[in-house]
Amino acid sequence: MTTSNKLFWKISATLMVLLVVLGFAYVFISGYIGNQYMQETHQRLYGGLAESVLKELKPYTKGQVNETDIKDIMHSTMIMNPIAEVYLLDPDGKIITHAAPKGKVKAEKVGIAPIKEYITATEKPFIIGDDPRYPGTCKVFSAAPILEEGELTGYLYIILQSEKATAISSGLFNSYMTKLGGNLFFVSLIGALLFGLLAIWFLTKNLTNIISTVRRFKEGDMNARIADTDQGDFKVLAETYNEMADTIVGNIDQLKSIENLRRELIANVSHDLRTPLSIVKGYVETLLIKEENISKEDRVKYLKTSMSSLERLEKLIAQLFEYSKLEAKQIEPKKEPFFVSELAQDVTAKYQILAKAKDIKIVLNKKENLPLVFADLSLVERVIQNLMDNALKFTPEGGTIGIDLDVTDNNVSIQVKDTGPGIPEDQQAHVFERYRKADRTGNKQAGAGLGLAIVKKILELHDTSIHIKSKMNEGTAFMFQLPAYQTT
Question: Model's pTM, two decimal places?
Fold first, then answer.
């Protein structure tokens, strides 16, 4: 049995149980309301019986019970309503005499509150009172006060449904319930069940299509999508599944892309590590082999070249370690107010020697009275240094590197620009990615491409971003902003 069939039968069984419960509840409520209706009808028809009898006969004469009139009251009441039971009560509800069979009346008094409410009501409401023959049960009644010379001497209390009437009514009610249950109940139940099963089948048919599509996706059909989501009965489910499938496929493609880039990184890092190691190894072997024949000047030259390669190797390893910490969010910025103009001045001074060796000019342009910025001093210095390293790498001899500082709204903007060959437009969106290296000259440059990736990560820690502006053969500019320090 398939999942959809199981669901169909589960829903059908639930519907069957629900309809049976509702059916019984309907019959019970209908019977209860019908019984109430019959009692209220009986009370409205015969509610004035006690008052009518007392207009013709007087149960008391000078404070004494008039036996003749009592018998006449009983006789007249039985003629008017053969199923009635007559009781003569004192003002407190105690039973003085009655017309019920001897030994059948078990109560000595009845509650007086319903009687008073019934008598004082302008429009006779539906009220039930105590049944003296069955203490604890209530029935519809008629009541009227007995007055003698303007004083209350008791009540005429008439139960409008005697024991015999109750037995007959109960028998008829049971017969009515049987007919109702045997006809209307079962007909309605079967009709509702058939209609419900049809509706469930129609609804689960769409669900079957959804299950089939999900199964296809599970088995490897990544293009499996639920069609006509606007017309189905499970629109939200279908749209959610389609969105989930698109997300999964997107994540898979992204993972594949990351895996390819990871392999590229490993290849680049391996190459970058191998190159300085090979240089060091070659010069060390040369020194060992030609130890006695090599001149002092060549020895120093070989050692300096080896040292340069080792420094390059050290820098690459430090970059990898730094980026790993940034990516793992192990670095928390320690923000403080400082003058970014002073920081830019210090970085410019440090890079002047390197720039002079390549015949590159460094120009610092800063606006007067720049405000303090609120950031991590060492991390911002790292950002500017990486941008300067990047500019020095690609700026040709005789070129210029500029550092521009300005104020924009409540931020200080920093821009590092060069007069290098520029970055192709199709590569500009990828220069900050960990696994990519910008190709400005048509040839791959040295380095694993981590400098700008580190810049982006550091600025993300400061809730800001970096932008690039570049044109081929005109140069490249990197721009970012830091929030100005707000003094209170």
Answer: 0.47
